[in-house]
Amino acid sequence: MSLAGSVTIGDIRGALARLDGVVHRTPVLTSRRLEAMVGARVFVKAENFQRIGSFKYRGASNAIMRLGPEERSRGVLTYSSGNHAQAIALAGATQRVPATIVMPSDAPRVKLDATRGYLAGAPAPSEVVVYDRMATTREALGERIARERGLVIIPPYDHPDVIAGQGTCALELLEQLVADEPGAGLDRLYVCCGGGGLLSGCAIAAKALAPGCEVIGVEPEAADDATRSFASRTLHTVENPGTIADGARTPFLGRYTFAMVCAHADRMMTVGDDALVGAMRFAMASMKIVVEPTGALALAGLLRDAMERPEEIRGQRIGVIISGGNVDLTDLARLLLD
Amino acid sequence: MSLAGSVTIGDIRGALARLDGVVHRTPVLTSRRLEAMVGARVFVKAENFQRIGSFKYRGASNAIMRLGPEERSRGVLTYSSGNHAQAIALAGATQRVPATIVMPSDAPRVKLDATRGYLAGAPAPSEVVVYDRMATTREALGERIARERGLVIIPPYDHPDVIAGQGTCALELLEQLVADEPGAGLDRLYVCCGGGGLLSGCAIAAKALAPGCEVIGVEPEAADDATRSFASRTLHTVENPGTIADGARTPFLGRYTFAMVCAHADRMMTVGDDALVGAMRFAMASMKIVVEPTGALALAGLLRDAMERPEEIRGQRIGVIISGGNVDLTDLARLLLD
Known about the structure:
Oligomer: homodimer
Number of helices of chain A: 15
Structural class of chain A: alpha/beta
Distance between the termini of chain A: 50 Å
Largest sheet of chain A: 6 strands, mixed
Helix content of chain A: 40-55%
Radius of gyration of chain A: 19 Å
Strand content of chain A: 5-15%
Strand order of the largest sheet of chain A: 1-2-10-7-8-9
């Protein structure tokens, strides 16, 4: 089996059933102002309303729920400074599986505290292990600890169960559209791309349910590794990209996600930080929702396409995944005033 | 018939049926963090997701839809610098009734522009009439223009059809709770109070459907006229109160709303601007929603009660009406950084 084929719509359907009652069925929002601006029907899947404020809880929960009894008793480990850390911590607590989270010592205090807060409900031995970003890499440290303690590693994106979990976002969106209007589908779907887990899973789900649906991945301009990788079909990397979209600062796609994005996405595009702030402002002012910079990538991609290729979009049914809403309010205020 | 009895649950039920498909059925949000903080079940009615971003669209639409054919052809007039202006403008456009809106010349440009934008879709002759706040009062000017042009005045709150429309907020909330769980009700309901239209309508609806439900009105500390009026059963006023809750700077309750608040509310309380900012921050950080200062009054009231009288609240089922989300993002950013 090829890497690109290692997650199927059957896996995503299985994940959606498994996650029933575990993850929130997030709302699909519409905005007349947005639809007037782009000249199309737009369905916004609001994963900022997901538990822990991000779609990451889907993949983390699915991966933990797929473990066997022996693996569960050993416990899991992940390395992340972002939403995946909180997702694994809460999923560990909810599923009664010990969780170890490797985080850099200079991670924002609010994220360290939130992760520790969720872990407080997880069975022992659960802990946050902080490391010095200058002295080691998170992968090296994570692998050493996992080996020593016999833990199962659940990486942030490059794992079939994580990808299948993230794919439930698009599957759920398409099911919600059909529930509202039998036979309804999507002509295109915008999804943000960091490590590519969400984009891979959503592309597989969208292509299975709506084969004609064009799936578009959106990256920050400064972290365009996936866009270059997709264009050249060779894995490109970026190093410490300077973008406000902290969830998409990942240096490269994974082995699975590179293969899946190449096989299942139709197009990759980038947007600048100014466009992200514009999309965040639009979401706040017109839709009354709080979106983190990474969470605004897909909306910013749609708004850019609406300006640059309006005739292509007009009259379509378009899905947009808002991936998360975890933004420090002081940082947000500074972005709004800039 | 007494003034306090001039709106009944029958009127509010009629309004809810009339508004079906016209106003959004806004979501009822829950937050585990909020429930953990207050030790109770909390159901947040999110009217910031209402059309024009505020509950005001309910009362404005109901009042316009109740007009007879002759009144419709004459057109309506209102005076407001806030959400009611936009509500009447959009309701006029939607119901094909000419609308004249009297606004102060120093109203925020964004509100003047938004009101003119909605009016662009209303039948002629519709217009915004600006006036000099120093030279005349909005009531005097509004009444003169209405008399000269034969327009029907729809005031911002002191009108039975407006009050019945606003009451659909609480009726809809209670119906949504029952739909989720047969027999479910509320032990208490927090509602903001400016002119008292929302509080009056919601109190009447809540008392009719859940007689044991305690209805609590929440005002800004600096604009505590309704709290004093409620305590003394005499109408008190405030002049140019200094509060960030611009929608609750109304100087006094109206004739109808004074009688109704006295008859149907159980308690009035006040919260300071700091508490409003705290509630706005909580809504943004934990619930991912944007709330205007006035819209955060009810939530701030609950959070204050949770600190000051926790034993009274513990284990209850509590409703909170978030009344609107129209806040200038620059103003919001400044509040977050203060």
